[in-house]
Amino acid sequence: MSLHEPLSRAISAPRVLRQLCEALLCEGWAASLQLDRSQAVGWCLRQTQFRARGRRGAFGRYRLQEGSIEIHDSGTWRPACTADVLAAVADPSPAMETLRDDLAHTEHLSDLAALQTRAAARRHSLPCSALETALYEGHPYHPCFKARSGFTDADHLAYGPEGGETFRLTGVLFHHTLIQQSLPHEDFWGQELGAAEWHRIAALAEQHNAPLGNYNLLPLHPWQHARLQPDPLFNTWRTSGQLLEIGPIGEAYKATQSVRTLMNAETPSRAHVKTAMAMRNTSALRTLAPESVTVAPAISNWLAGVCGNDPLFSSRYPLTLLPEYAAVTAGRGTALDGHLAAIWRRSPDSLGLAPDSMMPFNGLALTEPDGTPLIAPWIEQHGLETWLNQLIEVAVLPIWHLLVAHGIGLEAHGQNLILQHEGGWPAGLIARDFHESLEYVPNLLSRPDLCPDLARIDPVYAAAPPDQFHRMSSAEELRWLVMDTLFVFNLADLSYLLQRHYGFAETSFWRRVRSRLDRYTAEHGMQARQAALAPFAPQIRAESLISRKIDPDRPQHGHLIANALATEKG
Predict the structure, then answer these.
(1) What is the 3-state secondary structure (H, E, C) of 271-326?
(2) Which CATH architecture has domain 13-134?
(3) Under a CB-based contact definition with an 8 Å cutoff, are residues 482 and 541 in contact?
(4) What residues in the chain have per-residue pLDDT under 70?
(5) Whole-structure pTM over 0.85, yes or no?
(6) pLDDT tens per residue across span 298-336
(7) Is CATH 3.40.920.10 what the domain over 355-535 is classified as, yes or no?
């Protein structure tokens, strides 16, 4: 089955269209826009009129009803399709053609997954590793939520998380001059792969005149390895003896929600491995920037040190980290820069918690196939307002305390956070994925002495200007990262779900968050530090995700949105 052979029943097109229109409205692409009290939305993209049932929710997130989007065409209204919207929003261009392909692939792969895989029932009670495959919905805002460029149908079924298929990594030995690595100890490979497997690899290396020491191991995702076969540089290295392919190694893995991050299917307590994949999903190519790989363990160690020196992270605002402790990249500064890399991070199963007491945070805002909220049993058991108060305590305050008290921001979106719970009762927060997504402002750091000198690890940081990597130029940049990910593109989906299914107004949700944040600053004397971040300004910036797809050459400075926290305290 291919993109040119439509599935027997297309079911994802209405969602793709809805999220495309919602994102365009959120990011200011409408030439004119009208909202009325009957929950009707009308807008123009250049000269073309559209309408739908819907409303504007928290943080300027437009929420349209699937199946209600219409276009005014030849004097009458008819149901719209993605082609109508794309034709209306911008002239043809290579970027628009890429967007068109990504939207079509998203529809196709979503439909394929729906037809080929069975949705799990009652997902709230599944263990965390099962949820990584069962939370199949993808990004709730970006319309290219399953673009997976370069994936065939067979790739999607073999390497997508939805099918839960297992596969082994492909071992490649690179000459040490091509490798940069940061490993925690000499016996790293023996512990990760097992002594017998590491001895087997060492014997293969000797047999093929690529002895360990002169050559270093880098496991590749099998899809990425297949993609590299025709690459001229990869082939040059192969023929010159600078790399040796040794086939499948180690235990079997399965894809997590992020596709490129893999969990050990045989020994779940072993590391998750984040791999480089030349696959475009949402707006980004899922390679791994080598400068972020080289410093990954140092970033995790720094964050662990900050949290370990603040007792509030173990008492009042429990925060558990899944550190990235090893990293390897190859081909630095070549045409394959970023295409050959892997990062090892601690797995949730290694924490010793009950597997069914952890849920990836994006699960909180999802609904089951019958339309009921995934968390409905939790709300029924604990009561909505009591449960919500505890969730704010457990999920918001640790990230906020790290930001306000310590001057460090995390990219706290739904896949990077895991909620620890006891029968649905929020008990703690687990955070992961720091190598590219931790930011700080030097003069806001509570412990500047703990901050690593990244330039000593990787020279690229020595001349890097602020805002390029981890070091930000202003408190506003730090606030932008945290509020964007934790509030605008994360908890806003939960606030919308609670209004839609329980009649709990979004304004009440965010008034409650604001009240708790104000109380936090009063309790710890943090008013001045919080004010420096200006988190309650009437308008704040949010990342322009669809705009980056439409006009990738234009510098993206975000778009202004109404701040749902700019209210009087409740």
Answers:
(1) CEEEECCCCEECCEECCCCHHHHHCHHHHHHHHHHHHHCCHHHCCCCCEEEECEEE
(2) 2-Layer Sandwich (3.30)
(3) no
(4) 1-10, 119-120, 567-570
(5) yes
(6) 999 999 999 999 999 999 999 999 999 999 999 999 999
(7) no
